[in-house]
Design a protein that fits this description.
With 467 residues, the protein is α+β, with helices and mostly antiparallel strands. It contains 9 helices and 22 strands.
């Protein structure tokens, strides 16, 4: 292969991808039908991620989405885990949909919106033939007059005026044409924020007893680059957890008084959280999500106070109960079971045969198996859902741009042309919205122009089109 053929070969190698990119790929991505399909798919899977609990354990899905009977005939725990429906927003296929939709918007912006903006904002848009004014829904012809007299009238109405010989072009409200581009940019920023959050954020769950200090460890769902977001130089102490109850004994609200501690154990932030009122620190948000009974503090006769852990019992879905067992003899040959259902302080005591022995409240004592058992108090655990999503500020910025673009899009883009030729003056105009308001403005403009020159003669009747 000589140098000339090799050069031609290289040219063809680089030309073919460029031709495919411009003639095939860009038009395909800019197709409105593709954007609609992608948007519907994103909405569908977003709804799926809202309906199906995210970031739960395999046992949770096995219990709630059994194979027999399968939900809707096909949705089982195996389908959910295999397809990633347990963490929809971090799956490769959902992120691919977001990227493809973003590419479609970008292609549409550069192929349609930006060329349209350049076309509408051009300064050489002049009409030089009277017949060109016949296409306007609103136009007029004057037997005499000068386009020079139109300039101050248009400038009073905040039109930007351009002149070329005996032709005039004026427009205002070009920001209305910029609005759709800003909307596209806003959506792209939202998608970028969503992708960034999915790649770098994490979700954790912790059940912490009152008085304990913890660092975030129990990560249930995380992006591939989330390691940097997990805090390592600060911890959280649950100073106190408590529940407010209504007069009928139901839960009104549960609270956690928490402190953020630095590496030296110094408190840097403190807040009492409850449902819908989280604690935020360095991009990590701690929500009050659940509660449990961690343990019970008791004393036998004159023994030291000791704390027994309590575990949640399986009630077959008939309520929440926590229980523990306490020996009443040193050789562990006898003991009693302690059962509690809430933190109001009531504890039910059963003997080894399952017989009810006593019911006591915090601070009360009772005789069991020849010893005095005193229940001092119940210790609650706060259930925290912890999230970090670095993409949220980006998403908020995208929504701000989106709202700004929508507001800008409501601005009417109005255009007016004028031509002075053969002793006559032709004037016409159009707008992309607010047609009635533009017609009134146009009629007022033509009336002032006619009064300053001559009688108004309409060669092609003054047409108003409200369709």
């Amino acid at each position: 292969m000589n140098a000339k053929n090799f050069s031609s070969y290289l040219t063809s190698v680089f030309t073919v991808p460029q031709v495919f990119f411009k003639r095939e790929l860009i038009p395909f991505l800019a197709d409105l039908r593709l954007a609609i399909v992608l948007l519907l798919l994103i909405a569908l899977f977003s709804i799926t991620g809202t309906v199906i609990e995210q970031g739960q354990s395999a046992a949770f899905y096995q219990a709630n989405y059994p194979e027999q009977p399968a939900l809707f005939g096909f949705l089982t725990w195996k389908v959910i885990l295999q397809t990633g429906l347990d963490h929809v927003y971090r799956t490769w296929w959902f992120l691919a949909l977001l990227i493809l939709f973003g590419s479609s918007l970008t292609a549409c912006t550069f192929k349609r919106q930006l060329p349209a903006l350049r076309w509408f904002s051009r300064t050489w848009n002049f009409y030089t033939q009277p017949r060109q004014f016949q296409k306007f829904a609103l136009s007029a012809e004057f037997n005499q007059g000068s386009v020079d007299d139109l300039v101050p009238l248009l400038e009073q109405r905040r039109y930007k005026v351009f002149r070329q010989d005996n032709s005039l072009y004026a427009h205002k409200g070009i920001v209305g044409r910029v609005g759709p581009i800003v909307v596209h940019v806003g959506i792209l920023v939202i998608l970028l924020g969503g992708i960034w959050g999915a790649m770098t954020g994490f979700i954790a769950q912790e059940m912490i007893p009152s008085g304990a200090t913890f660092q975030i460890r129990n990560i249930t769902d995380a992006g591939p680059f989330a390691e940097r977001q997990v805090p390592k130089d600060w911890s959280v102490k649950v100073n106190r957890f408590w529940i407010d109850y209504t007069p009928d004994g139901t839960i009104d609200q549960f609270y956690s008084d928490m402190s953020v501690l630095d590496q030296a154990g110094k408190e840097v932030k403190r807040k009492t959280i409850h449902v819908n009122e989280p604690l935020r620190y360095r991009g990590v948000t701690l929500y009050q999500a659940d509660w449990a009974i961690a343990g019970v503090r008791v004393r036998l006769n004159n023994s030291p106070i000791f704390q027994l852990p309590m575990a949640q019992l399986d009630t077959g879905g008939k309520g929440r109960l926590w229980g523990t067992w306490i020996p009443t003899k040193p050789d562990l040959s006898e003991g009693v079971s302690l059962i509690a259902k809430d933190l109001q302080g009531t504890v039910i005591i059963y003997d080894a045969s399952g017989k009810l022995v006593a019911t006591v409240r915090s601070g009360m004592a009772t005789e069991v198996n020849g010893v005095t058992l005193k229940v001092l108090d119940l210790i609650g655990s706060t259930g925290l859902q912890i999230k970090a999503d670095p993409g949220i500020p980006i998403v908020y910025a995208g929504f701000a741009l989106l709202m700004l673009g929508v507001i800008m899009s409501y601005v009417s883009h109005s255009q007016i042309w004028a031509l002075q030729t053969n002793g006559q003056c032709f004037v016409g105009g159009k707008t992309n919205r607010a047609q009635v308001a533009f017609e009134r403005e146009m009629l007022d403009l033509l009336d002032q122009f006619g009064q300053s020159n001559s009688d108004l003669q309409v060669s092609y009747p003054l047409i108003t089109n409200h369709s």
